[in-house]
Amino acid sequence: MEKEMQIKRSGLIALGVLVILVVISFFIGGHDGKLHVYFLDIGQGDAMFVQTPGGKQILIDGGPDQTVLQRLGEVMPFYDRTIDLVVATHPDADHLAGLVSVLEKYRVASILETGMQCETALCAEWEKIVPKEQAVMNYGNLGEEINIEEGVKLLILNPFFELKDQKLSSRNNGAVVLKLMYGKQTVLLTADIEASIERKMLVSDLNLKADFLKIAHHGSKTSTTEDFLKAVAPKAAFIEVGRRNRYGHPTEEVLGRLENLSIPYYRTDTQGTIELVLDGKDYQILTGSPR
Q: Do the beta carbons of residue 85 and residue 112 sit within 8 Å?
């Protein structure tokens, strides 16, 4: 009898622990009927994680190293080893390197990339691991809409022409630019595009207006022109950048343009991972611990 009671107590304890873990993972996973965009603190690079109201997960770039795995562990349930869509905007190391680690650890259903020619050792590693993932591949087209779930879609705004197997003088300007759309709210994700592509977008009659903007190229002075900012007219901007980086990002020029246009901005180097929460109409911005 005593042994049976011990077994029952052990079973109840195990059940209690399981319930607690499920509750914790519920809140970590953000299954609250809202869309969550995390600008991950991964150092000098880009990595953004999106969780939709229906639980779909998107990772846009992976930063310069395996730090992205730690950050994903902070925003995904501990048991979750699947990602619905990975976007490799372009093959520079500060965007692509972490994605190699992601493909090694997670099961990825779909991959969006340009397929532009790249001859680095990192690109060779990427090209070797991608086929093993057996993910659905998409090389993207200007104006293409990717339906993530009902009410959530991605619109491709760059590159302007197919880049698969093409060699570019500037990989930055061939990067995938996306507009994330949810209800009446939009987030423009500009990768590392420079002023020349911003101007091309402006004269191409693309709808650049967005509620929120990911600042291009970590706040480099070669991007984020005043005309571009005026066309987007965001309520807030986000800068993915590493602390005390050797490039001087974000530059005083870009910060000055944002301030002159009264656009509030958030930085991962000083505020850690930044979370943008959207409900289709209103929004909330949550930051990590000040640095």
A: yes
> What's the CATH number where 212 sits?
3.60.15.10
As a whole number of Å, the CA-based R_g of the chain is 20
> Which residue ranges in the chain fall short of pLDDT 50?
17-19, 21-26, 28-30
- pLDDT of 49-58, one tens digit each? 999 999 999 9
Q: In this structure, is residue 96 part of a structural domain?
A: yes
Instruction: Please report how many Cα atoms fall inside a 13 Å half-sphere around the Cα of residue 182, on the Cβ side.
Output: 26
3-state secondary structure of 265: strand
Q: What is the pLDDT of residues 150-178, one digit of tens each?
A: 999 999 999 999 999 999 989 999 999 99
Q: How many domains does the chain have?
A: 1
Q: How far apart are CA 159 and CA 175, in angstroms?
A: 6
pTM: 0.90
C-beta of residue 233 within 8 angstroms of C-beta of residue 209: yes
Q: What are the tokens at 207?
A: 């709808």
Q: How far apart are CA 131 and CA 129, in angstroms?
A: 6
